[in-house]
Inverse folding.
């Protein structure tokens, strides 16, 4: 296929993914949490959060009649086991046990979804991120940098080579937009990254390994390795909206094939 056709196809796909992601974030900004557990329209699991800084649980009712309970999420809940020279810090969790999932979630709907996803999730790992990543991301959006480092599992880092034709800045100051990339030195790889106010969702294909990186809280990324074959058995191949720090579902974004 012609190179320019591939580039155009990739950009259309990237634009669609980022548009869905930004729409989700706009819905989150405009949604409100009720002061009392009355039936509230459009109160989704992805928007539920405590309305105060207290740790007490709160409950509301969704449109379908189900109750949802949410709680204040503890930042940096797990100890660091490894720190890289770049500044990423890894925790040592498998991320499938219910006790761990309760720490990762902040409401009952999210917890339920995480449990359901365990069928096709191989493992999860929480990584704390350095502030330098946001600085580098801004440079990517400004075409001042063409490589950026992201974490993989167990202390490994990946250097991404950004596709210059596939950079989609929305708001550089708030670190909002997206880009497509390849993993340096890995021909069979592709990456799509989308961000809104420095909240990230990154879909990674590294050879036969597929995983998703999503912001849990500022400065925290949740890595989720996916068994694609098992996932497709349950939900089928799909193009999902990007995740975020409050998303109940961590389904990976299919990455655009790199352009040679």
């Amino acid at each position: 296929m012609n190179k320019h056709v591939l580039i155009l196809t990739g950009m259309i796909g990237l634009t669609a993914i980022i548009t869905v992601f930004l729409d989700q974030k706009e819905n989150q900004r405009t949604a409100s949490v009720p002061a009392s557990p009355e039936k509230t329209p459009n109160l989704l699991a992805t928007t539920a959060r405590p309305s105060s800084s207290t740790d007490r649980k709160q409950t509301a009712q969704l449109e379908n009649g189900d109750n949802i309970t949410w709680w204040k999420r503890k930042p940096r809940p797990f100890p660091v086991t490894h720190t890289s020279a770049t500044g990423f810090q890894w925790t040592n969790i498998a991320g499938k046990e219910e006790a761990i999932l309760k720490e990762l979630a902040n409401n009952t709907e999210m917890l339920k979804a995480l449990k359901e996803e365990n069928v096709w999730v191989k493992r999860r790992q929480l990584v704390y991120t350095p502030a330098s990543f946001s600085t580098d991301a801004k440079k990517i959006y400004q075409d001042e940098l063409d490589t950026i480092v992201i974490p993989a599992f167990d202390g490994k880092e990946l250097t991404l080579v950004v596709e210059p034709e596939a950079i989609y800045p929305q708001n550089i100051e708030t670190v909002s937009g997206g880009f497509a990339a390849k993993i340096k030195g890995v021909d069979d790889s592709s990456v799509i990254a989308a961000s809104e106010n420095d909240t990230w969702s990154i879909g990674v294909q590294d050879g036969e390994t597929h995983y998703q990186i999503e912001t849990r809280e500022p400065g925290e990324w949740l890595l989720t390795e996916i068994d694609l074959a098992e996932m497709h058995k349950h939900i089928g191949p799909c193009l999902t909206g990007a995740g975020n720090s409050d998303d109940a579902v961590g389904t990976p974004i299919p990455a655009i094939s790199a352009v040679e």
Q: What stands out?
A: Confidence is low (pLDDT under 50) at residues 1-12, 25-54, 239-260. The longest strand covers residues 157-171. The chain has one domain: 1-30+80-260. The longest helix spans residues 3-30.
